[in-house]
Task: inverse folding
């Protein structure tokens, strides 16, 4: 049985470590992702070495996701400087270690706990006499503080100098025991008999220079050469097995919804697949992908660090930067687009999300009104929102709104219509925020629809990648305004691009908002907020749908409110208009009526709307007052609204 030994490395010489574990020669520096086989204590290992990846966050998201129970991860981070945080050494080491553990906690989908070997490199650069003690104490302190995250894995820690043979030899025996333990705990898999036939076809396709295929095309080519018809589920099982032993790559989890070919033996019947199995890609030539493509995808020529300051590339420029020959250009760019590692604008230019500049434009203070939603992990001790997820969201945004309305940076985006919507991830990558703002009154609905539309795209991505491990909150507008003010102050002292959000923004779940509305109390928290100040009362109908006729008139649906205003704003010959409504709702005096009338005239507002804001009641009481006024036209508008809401809920 073979084992996937995934190695993630930022600072240490992993190739040297592999040499000391498996011998016999020192390999050269790695390029891209190296997949090799080795034997350890008589057991075959498949070693994936990611050390040659500059843009690690994107390729790792593709290749590290696994459900195999026989997977061992190796995480290497630098111990240099951890004896003191005077120059940020401890903070840097903690960030490295926790980043990768959180990353692995969301990529590994098996029910079993994966084994993680944590290697602290550069122990030789710590104070010599206490280096081992310092390293172990540092690790234990981090583990105690993040115990729930560490409990997601079977973790072993080794501080060592990778260039010292005796240091590296020290982990031979523990590694051998780990491999043996994984072997004992892994149930024997039933190898599908069609695997050999599939690999014969794969070998034939490779000879034809076919380097990758989409699922349906691949399934058709396999079914044509098999002696007997098979179920599509059998083919899927065989392909997953070949993926697990690294004979090919099966990448189903990042692509648009599609169909699975041939559900019944010998019949071309398409049925829906689960979200993580649709429109999969089969990589036939792994060396081409891992070396020729990923080996140059992180090319320095594409990086902002190269000094080019380019964020959009013509086809020829991108091909030249990636060292693609004429025969490889179409296939390589097609594959990178399918992976969503690059995307093509409507103008035919290419954008590489991984090489966008850090930090977005300053938060605009021109928006008087702010609303937002956030997504955060239910378990605050694990998980994160990856760079790859944000890059995929950027691609969705440019497809939805076009390049003229979108601007991007690394980890964020800005969409501008009548309103504007800013998408960004917090510095610790634990929170994803969608922050909307508008200035003109008629742009409130536009902001609501932006949040709804983009929020749905975010939730589709999160469901496909993270299941139900996240929760949605509605952000506090006061806090958002303060965030904007802080950004403006930073701009005054010379910061051109905004820094990320460091502290977690507070917010409220919809259930908390609903309960506060039911009890007619403010939302508890750092800021005292009323429920209608957090949501969009005339656009978001969830409160109205939940409470029915017991709902406050503050939550009247927008078009219904407009209808009531148009019916009651006009003065009635028998005084059955907004003035009479004010008297019935709140015993409005003549002076109050005069004040409302002046405010409506001076600000161009509806007096009916001002009365409803001043004297909110439940809809049942509002209907009673309107009935007493003999305004059946207004009562009918409210009843129609409730019927439409009921039909909408039933049809969902």
Result:
């Amino acid at each position: 049985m073979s084992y996937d030994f995934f190695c993630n490395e930022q600072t240490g010489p992993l190739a040297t470590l592999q040499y000391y574990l498996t011998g016999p020669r020192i390999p050269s520096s790695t390029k891209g992702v190296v997949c090799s086989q080795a034997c350890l204590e008589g057991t075959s290992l498949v070693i994936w070495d990611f050390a040659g990846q500059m843009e690690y966050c994107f390729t790792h998201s593709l290749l590290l996701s696994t459900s195999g129970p026989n997977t061992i991860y190796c995480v290497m981070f630098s111990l240099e400087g951890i004896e003191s945080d005077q120059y940020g050494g401890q903070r840097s080491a903690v960030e490295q270690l926790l980043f990768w553990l959180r990353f692995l906690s969301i990529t590994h989908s098996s029910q079993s706990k994966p084994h993680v070997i944590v290697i602290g490199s550069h122990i030789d650069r710590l104070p010599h006499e206490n280096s081992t003690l310092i390293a172990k104490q540092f690790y234990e302190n981090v583990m105690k503080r993040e115990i729930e995250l560490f409990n997601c894995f079977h973790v072993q820690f080794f501080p060592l100098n990778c260039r010292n043979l005796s240091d590296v030899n020290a982990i031979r025996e523990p590694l051998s025991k780990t491999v043996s333990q994984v072997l004992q705990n892994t149930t024997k898999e039933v190898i599908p008999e069609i695997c050999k036939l599939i690999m014969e076809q794969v070998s034939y396709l490779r000879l034809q220079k076919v380097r990758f295929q989409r699922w349906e095309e691949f399934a058709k080519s396999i079914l044509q050469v098999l002696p007997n018809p098979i179920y599509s589920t059998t083919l899927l099982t065989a392909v997953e097995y070949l993926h697990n032993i690294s004979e090919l790559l099966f990448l189903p989890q990042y692509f648009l919804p599609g169909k699975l070919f041939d559900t019944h033996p010998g019949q071309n019947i398409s049925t829906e697949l689960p979200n993580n199995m649709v429109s999969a890609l089969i990589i036939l030539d792994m060396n081409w992908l891992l070396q020729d493509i990923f080996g140059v995808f992180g090319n320095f020529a594409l990086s902002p660090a190269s000094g080019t300051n380019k964020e959009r590339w013509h086809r020829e420029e991108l091909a030249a930067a990636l060292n693609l020959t004429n025969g490889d250009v179409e296939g390589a760019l097609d594959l990178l687009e399918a992976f969503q590692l690059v995307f093509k604008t409507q103008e035919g230019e290419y954008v590489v999300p991984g090489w966008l500049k850090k930090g977005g434009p300053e938060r605009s203070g021109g928006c008087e009104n702010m609303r937002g939603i956030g997504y955060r992990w239910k378990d605050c001790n694990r998980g994160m929102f990856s760079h790859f997820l944000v890059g995929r969201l950027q691609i969705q945004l440019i497809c939805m709104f076009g390049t003229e309305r979108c601007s991007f940076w690394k980890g964020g985006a800005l969409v501008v219509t009548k309103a504007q919507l800013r998408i960004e991830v917090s510095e610790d990558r634990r929170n994803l925020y969608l922050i909307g703002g508008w200035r003109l009154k008629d742009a409130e609905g536009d902001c609501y629809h932006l949040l709804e539309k983009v929020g749905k795209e975010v939730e589709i991505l999160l469901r496909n990648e993270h299941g139900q491990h996240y929760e949605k909150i509605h952000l506090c507008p006061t806090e958002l305004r303060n965030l904007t003010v802080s950004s403006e102050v930073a701009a005054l002292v010379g910061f051109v691009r905004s820094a990320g959000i460091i502290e977690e923004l507070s917010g409220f779940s919809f259930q908390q908002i609903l309960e506060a509305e039911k009890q007619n109390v403010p939302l508890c928290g750092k800021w005292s907020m009323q429920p209608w100040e957090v949501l969009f009362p005339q656009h978001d109908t969830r409160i109205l749908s939940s409470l029915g006729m017991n709902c406050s008139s503050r939550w009247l649906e927008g078009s219904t409110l407009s209808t009531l205003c148009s019916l009651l704003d006009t003065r009635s010959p028998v005084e059955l208009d907004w003035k009479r409504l004010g008297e019935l709702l709140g015993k409005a005096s003549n002076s109050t009526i005069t004040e409302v009338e002046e405010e409506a005239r001076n600000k161009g507002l509806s007096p009916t709307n001002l009365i409803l804001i001043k004297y909110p009641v439940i809809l049942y009481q509002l209907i009673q007052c309107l009935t007493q006024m003999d305004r059946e036209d207004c009562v009918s508008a409210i009843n129609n609204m409730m019927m439409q809401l009921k039909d909408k809920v039933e049809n969902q």
